[in-house]
Write a structure and sequence with these properties.
59% of the residues lie in helices and 3% in strands. It has seven helices and two strands, in the order E-H-E-H-H-H-H-H-H. This is 3-hydroxyisobutyrate dehydrogenase.
Length: 163
């Protein structure tokens, strides 16, 4: 997600593709960052929703792999359930399979949600779910999850309820 003068973006596009496969011109300076914080706000909200849903399913006696399979073939499917499931044992090669090590840190998610909150305030845009996600990730940072992947929200929710 890149913002700036379009001609300068086009001149740097080949170099930018070395940094990532998907390089998208978003408009003037700052628009790339705007797109990034919007994307990350949705990612945070989606991950919390996936973690809550999976936790409820476990509490109802559902097998987590079966629930993930059902979600991913139904209208609840999202990136957090299909590609980056937060429940240990559901998927291989994701942070939840490695005690939430690696991935995108909770501190970084809290920072991006803070940026989203600031811009929402500046533009008088209501983002109640974004605000709640920001609060959840800030509490997680204060309670020892700062260096874990943001998908550790599943573990945080399980601890909050006393399992």
């Amino acid at each position: 997600m890149v913002g700036g003068v379009k001609e300068e973006y086009q001149a740097a596009q080949e170099l930018l593709t070395c940094m990532g496969a998907n390089v998208v011109y978003c408009g003037p300076v700052g628009s790339g960052q705007a797109a990034k914080i919007c994307n990350n706000m949705l990612l945070a909200i989606g991950m919390i929703g996936t973690a809550e849903t999976m936790n409820l399913g476990l509490r109802l006696g559902l097998d987590p792999k079966l629930l993930a399979q059902i979600l991913n073939m139904s209208s609840g499917r999202c990136w957090s359930s299909e590609v980056y499931n937060p429940v240990p044992g559901v998927m291989e090669g994701v942070p939840s399979a490695n005690n939430y090590q690696g991935g995108f840190g909770t501190t970084l998610m809290a920072k991006d949600l803070g940026l989203a909150q600031s811009t929402a305030t500046d533009t008088k845009t209501p983002v109640p779910l974004g605000a709640l996600a920001h609060q959840i990730y800030r509490v997680m940072c204060a309670r020892g999850y700062a260096n874990k992947d943001f998908s550790s929200v599943f573990q945080f929710l399980r601890e909050e309820e006393g399992q």
